[in-house]
Every structure is written in C-alpha cells, then in structure tokens.
Amino acid sequence: MTRVLEFSRRYPTVALTVTVGLVALLAFFALPGSGPTVARVLVTTFALVVAAQQGWGMVQDARRGQWGLDVLALVAILSTLAVGEHWASLVIVLMLTGGEALEDYAENRARDELTTLLSRAPRSAHLVLGEGSVLDVAVDDVTVGQLLLVKPGEMVPVDAVLVDEAADFDESSTTGESLPVVRHRGDTVLSGAVNGSTAVTVRATATAAGSQYQQIVALVEGAAESRAPFVRLADRYAVPFTLVALAIAGAAWAITGDPVRFAEVLVVATPCPLLIAAPVSFIAGMSRAAKNGVIVKDGGTLERLARVRTAAFDKTGTLTHGEPRVSRVLPEGRTADELLALVASAERLSSHVLAQAIVDEATGRGLDLSTDVTVDDLPGRGLRAHVDGRLVVVGSYDLVAETSADVLRPELVPGEMSVMVGVDGRYAGTVTLSDEIRADAATTVSRLRASGVEHVVVLTGDAQATADAVAGEVGIDDVRAARLPQGKVDAVAGLTGRPVMMVGDGINDAPVLAVADVGVAMGARGASAASESADVVVLVDEISRVADAVAISRRTVRIALQSIGLGIGLSLVLMVLAAFGAIPAIVGAGLQEVVDLVAILNALRALGGPVGETSGAARVRSTRPTASGEVEQRRDALV
C-alpha cells in the first residue's frame, strides 16, 4: 500500500487515469441501464481534459521552436472520441501518462552506475587524536596532514597515504578494478577506495574538495544532467513521421469511407520510443563507461566519441608511464644486484626522481639496502657516499671520471638516460633509465584503428628521436615532436579528419584537450587541470580504457539508432495493419504499449555487452613490483 501511495504522489496523472478507468468499469457493470452512458461520459470528459492539457503544452513548445510527436497522440485521442471509441482513448491517455513513469524507470535503470557513485560519497571521517582517541568529523572539515582511521568496509574519505605497513582496498568504484589492490606504507590511497578487513590509519594529502572521489562526483553530476544533441535528432523525426502517419490515416479513411480507420491508424502512431529510447541508450552507455572506469561528461561527448576519425596522443604519461624506470643494469666486476644495491643505498634518502626509480627497482628485487651511509650531495652532478665504508660515486660521466678510471659510455637508445657508478676509485658500471612504454599502448592503437579511427598521431614536446622511438613501438607513423602547448593546439586545429580525439595527462595538455572535439584526460594521477578541461576522464591508469570508451560509445549510438528504427518500423507496420482494419482501436492502443516496452528494453542493452579486449588480465594487483611476475621477467631482461 505504501508503494502505491508513493507512486500516486510521484505520478498523479497516471494514478488519476487508472482511477477513472476503474470507476468507469465499475459504473459500466454496476449500474443497470445507465452504466454504459455514465462510463462513456466519465471517460470522454477525462480524455478531453487531458487532450486540452496536451494541446496547451504543444502550443508552449511551438513558441519555443520545438515540435514533438505529441500531436499524434492528441489527434488520436480526439479521433477515437469522435468515432465513439472512448475506451481506446482512455488507453491512449494511459499510454501518454504512463510513458513518464516508464521513462523514469528506464533512465533510473540506465543511471545505476552513475547514481551508485553519487550515493556512496563519503560524508564523515574518523579523525585520530592524541592518545589513540577518535573523533568523527564532517569530511569537508578534514585538512591536509591529519591522521584518519578507516574501519573495515569503510570508504577512504579523502586522498591520503597509508601509514600502516600494508592493507588491501577495493577500488572498483573509482577505477573499475574488480579485484582488491594491495597498498603499502607510503602508497597513495585515493578517496573512494573501500578498506578491507582490518582497520588502517592514513594521512590526508588533500581536502575533500580536492580529492579524487569528490572530483568524480562532480563529473558524474554533470554527466547525469546532460542531454545529447543526438537525442534531439530523434525529435527531428517527429515532423516527417507525423506527416506519414496522418497520410496513412487519411488514405485509409478516404479509401474506405470509414472514419474509424483514421482513428485506428493514429492509435498505433504514437511512437514514444522515438522520444524515450534514444536518451535511455545514452544514459545507459555513460553508465557502462563509468563502470569501466571512464567518466563521459555529457551525452554530446558520447555521440562525438562514437564518430572519432582521428586520435592524437601525448607521449609522456599517456603512451608511456610518465616516470623513469630502470631499464638496464650494466655492471663491471660485480653482479647486477650488487651494483644496484650499492647505488640504491647511496640514493636511498634522495628525493630526486631518478634516485627514487633506482631505489624502487632495488626494493622490487628484494635487495637489502645498507643504512650505514653518509652522503655528500652534488647538485646537478650526482653524489658521493660512503656505504659500509666504501666510497660510491653516482652521477654524470664527468663526475665519475674524476675519481674512477676506464669509465665506459654505454650506447643509449632514444629516450634513455644513464647514471654512472664508481666504487673505491674504479668504474663499477652503469644504470640506465627510461620512461617505459605502456604495455597496452600498441594494442590500444590497433583497437582504435580496427574500430574505424583512420588517423593516429603523436603530439609531444619531447625531442623528435625520442618521440619517433616510442611511436614506432606502438605503431604510430605520424609524429609531431618538440611542440609546446600552443603548438599542440595548432596541430589539432589543423587535423582534417574530424572529430579529433586528443588524449593527454598533464597540466600542459589542458589547452589542447579543451580545443579537441573530444578531450580525454588520463586522470588516475589527479591531474586536475587536464581533467577539468577534458570531455572524458579515465579514472584508472590504463590507456586501454580509451579504446574501451570508443567501443562503448559506438555500441551505444548503434543501439540508439536501432531503438529509433525499431520504434518507427513497428509503428509503421501497425499503422498499415490498422489501415486495413486488422487492428481495432482498443487492441492497437495496447500493442503500442508493447512497442514502447520493446524499444526501451532494446535501449537498455547499452548497459552491457563487450567492449573489446579489456585490460583486466594484465592489471597489476599490487603497487609493489614483487607482487607481479612481470617484474621478475623484467629483472631477467635487465641483467
């Protein structure tokens, strides 16, 4: 009973239509003699009131320059009343008023993934005070640096770093990763991640407003309110469809001389699928993308994404990981692990990005680093350190050559850099580093080409040789290097195959993402400037999600077109049958409801389906290299 009352409050016209129908049926059977007349008068009066409301709404729409399909419903109501088919007119009224409820259901079903993100947004946080006490505070009151307790099963309220030794988190709500991800002390834990089975302590690195999950919520709120230009395309079918329907109805009346045929044709010529199925498809597609770790900001973007003919990629952080990693260890007179352990011990306390990469590699190999270290930092050149009593010099060729003999210069590939090492006055080897190409970059490019993208280009500020090397590895032959932000903007403006999709990740990519037909930001690292200027934000650090987004958008548009075609096609078939007298008005009204349902169910197919080669099989489950066999393979290759 409660649900009935709630439904009645939300959809009063539907409830009133059902009530009028029940009262009319009761009068028809309960009042001897006068029952049919009472029922006819009641239904006719109610239908005329609804028709008047529809007519006034049409006038208001016409003043705004909008022309819809409601004119067919209005004419159908009036024509059925004129020929005495008052029960059919009531079914048409129910179809019109019930369409709102049906559309709400379909849209709510399609929005599931989007609304789930919104509803789960953290509201409070457990602030850790002195002596282990905890105070619950509003998430908006959390400041950077505060210690927070995250209980089992709770969502991390703000972006933070893990204070405890290790913990596992469910990041599916933000990245789409279905398996728990292991984080270790000092690792970043983004807001929105759900803690596992043990309470953990984290230290806030951002406020709520600046955290990943709140930014996602803002994107989702914008996406949920969007209406695609493509949806208005469905509205443009209204005029020709209306004219065709009126022509068929008029011809049936003229040929048979029976005005009932006119009414019967128009009863089945009220294609709500034309108005409902397209927006439902788009909302479902956006929800599908969100489930896959991609936020599409509006329906118009989804439509443009489906038509992309040119894809442009930034190099650093997009086709590559965007951070240096050890590529080779070239020892002299010792093993690779021994050399790496010495260098990492010397670099352990350095904040330099290259030093951190070397330490990460050593840690990933499980090497023990010495703590008996004193360091003399030489800015711009390297460092001298005493590690367990041994003099270790790490840095440039010139620095190491000052104290070590026979220093060798290794042959470097484009994009690779070297760190020379001397130990106790002798050359000990070289560690090379490079910004590694993403494992899924080449597959992503090939998938885009297979889906219909005709032209793929690299736009980067890096040197031509480095850019050419990366592009060659991933299968791109158009490389435009040494481009500053304005140069990237000019390059995108000059591309002829439209729409153009630009994929980038950094602050310097924000201008070109804004001018591209579709700007895609690799937003997993919280590059807010890029994310805010982009139309699409990839929430997980996998470039394959770009190809997934294109696949989802193309499938969504295809389903939307199918739904529109299905609605029009079935309505035309029913109109022809009605013109020959095969479908009575009351039956036709019911069949039209079936057509509505079929078209909407077809539109909801955009919620599922394949997206191509997903990257799930290749995902790393832990932020520590030792958790993946991939690192062991890399280790073999390095030495």
Folded structure, characterized:
The protein is of the alpha+beta class and 639 residues long. It is built from 25 helices and 22 strands. The strands form four sheets. The protein has a seven-stranded mixed beta sheet, with helices on both faces. A hairpin with a 2-residue loop joins β16 (416-423) and β17. 46% of the residues are buried. The chain crosses the membrane at residues 12-31, 38-59, 237-256, 262-284, 564-587. Keywords: ATP-binding, Cell membrane, Membrane, Metal-binding, Nucleotide-binding, Transmembrane, Transmembrane helix. Residues 121-221 form the P-type ATPase A domain.
Summary?
It comes from Sanguibacter biliveldensis. Residues 121-221 form the P-type ATPase A domain. With 639 residues, this protein is α+β, with helices and mostly antiparallel strands.
Features:
639 residues; alpha+beta; Calcium-transporting ATPase, cytoplasmic transduction domain A; Rossmann fold; Calcium-transporting ATPase, cytoplasmic domain N; seven-stranded mixed β-sheet; six-stranded antiparallel β-sheet; 22 strands
